[in-house]
Amino acid sequence: MSEQESAATESGIGEPSEQWREYQGAPTGTEIECKGWRQEAALRMLNNNLDPEVAEKPEDLVVYGGTGRAARSWDAYDAILAELRDLDDEETLLVQSGKPVGRFATHERAPRVLIANSNLVGKWDDWEHFHELEAEGKIMYGQMTAGSWAYIGTQGIIQGTYETLAELGRQEYDSNLEGKIVATGGLGGMSGAQPLAVTMNRGVCIAAEVDARRIERRLDTDYLMERADSLDEALDNAEEAAEAGEPYSVAVEMNVADMLEAMLERGFVPDVVTDQTSAHDELGGYYPSGYSVAEADELRESDPERYREESLDTMERHVDAILELQERGAVAFEYGNNLRGQVEDHRGREDAFDFPGFVPAYIRPMFCRGRGPFRWAALSGDPADIHRTDEAVTERFPDNESLNRWIELAQEQVSFQGLPSRVCWLGYENDENGLTERARFALRINELVADGEISAPIVVTRDHLDAGSVASPHRETEAMRDGTDAVADWPILNALLNCAAGADIVSVHDGGGVGIGNALHANNHVVLDGSDLAAEKARRVFTTDPGMGVIRHADAGYDEAIDEADQSDVAVPMRDRR
What does the mean pLDDT of the chain come to? Predict the structure, then answer.
C-alpha cells in the first residue's frame, strides 16, 4: 500500500476500492455496464472525476480544491457503482454527500441521479460543525464539480479563466495582455489553468506554487512553460518576454505571500496580481508560510488549530501584499477563493475588500445575458468525437469570432485529461425558432450521435461558475445591484427547474470554491444519446438553465439582462405585467 493509500485508510474513508484500481479512470467505448446510457454516463463521469490524470488525490477520493470529494468513502463509491448498474430507466438514485441513500420509481423523463452535498441549516452552516460531522463520516465537502461528477480536470476551468483575462485586457489595456505580467498563486486542479489562460491572451505569467508535484504536472500537460530555480530568475525571464511581447509562463516553488512580498522588496510591480490558492479552506486547502509541503502536512495532523492560525496569518500578509501592489499601480482582483473574506472574518480587516472580485469586475455582463460555461465530454473516450464537436460548434456559430478563436486555441494548446472534453461559453440569445445558443448546439450534437458521426453519447454539463445557479456573496453574486448577494433562492430554483425540464443529473451544494456557509450552488448533466428523448430534454434544459441567469439579473435591475429578456422573449412576470 502506498503512503497516500495508507493515509486514505487512516482518514476513515477506507482503503481504495478494487474497482477503482481496475478502472483508473472512466470506462470507454460503446459497450455499457448499466441498463441505459443515462446511468452509464453517471458511472463514467464519477470514475472520470477519480482518474489519476484528472483528480488531485484520487486515493483520498479528493478531486480538487483541498478536500473536494467525489464520494464520501470507498464503500460509498462501490455502492454508488452497484446502484447505477442496477438502476432502471424509470428510477432515480439519491446521493447525500457522496453516499447513496435511496432509490425510487419516478419516470423516464425524471433525473436518473439527484445529489445534495455539504448542505447545513443556516445556524449550523460553518466549518466547525461541518468538520465535526465529517470526522464522524456523516458528510463530505463536494466542492463544485467534484461532488456533482462534472469535473474534467484543468481543461474544464481554462476557458473561464481565459474569458476573465480577455475581458481584463479589453477593459484595462484596450487590447489583450501582450507585454503585461500577471503574478498569481496556485497551480492545483483549478488554478493550474492560469498560466495557459494568460499566454492564450498573449501575456506573461509568474505563478507561485508550494507543491513541486503540481508544478511538474502543469509542465507535463503543457499548461506551464517553465520552472525557475529562483524568483530572480523568474522575474528576469518574465521581463524579457514581456519586453519582446512574447507569451510566457513560469512557476516558482514558494509560498505566494512570500513571493509577493519579495516582489515589493525588489520594487517589482506586476501589471496584474490575482490568486487562485485554496484560501476558502485554511486547514485543508491553504499552506502557511515557513513550511515545506511535508512539514505543513505534518503540522496539520499534529496541531490543526495552530495550522489554521498560521494559514490565516499568511492570508493576511497575502492580502496586504496585494493591496500594496495595487497601491503601486497593479490591477488587482480576487479570483473567487474567498481570500478577502477569510481575512475580513478572521482578522477583522474591513480593507480586505479594497480590491474587487473577478465577477463584478469582468464577468457579470456575460452572466446578465445567460452566458457561461457549457462543457461536454466524449463518453467513448475517443478524441475524434470531440474534434467533430469542435467542427459542429464553429459551423453552428460561424460569426462568433471570439468563440471560433477559442476553439482554435483550445485545439492547439489544451491537453485532454481523462475523458476527452471541451468547454466554451454559450448563452441564451434565442433564434427565430426560439432556441437558445446552448440548445442549438446541444441539438446538433444529438443529431451527430444519432447519425453515427460521433461514436457514443456526449454528456453535457457545466461549471458552477454560471449565470443563474449560484448564490455566493464573495464571488458570483458579489456586489449585486439590488443588494441580494446572499439570497439563496436562485440556485434552489435553478435545480428545481432543471429537474422539471428533465436534466439527467441534478445537484445542489453548499460552499464550493469559497467554503462552507459562503455559497449555495447547483449543477446539471444532460446525456445526448441521439434519441428523441435526449433532444426533448436538451431543448428544455438548455433554455431553463441559461434563462435562470437572465431572470436573476433582470430581477436585480441589470439593463443587459432586461435587454436580453426583451430580445429573447424571456418572461419576467412582474415587469411584463406593469
Answer: 94
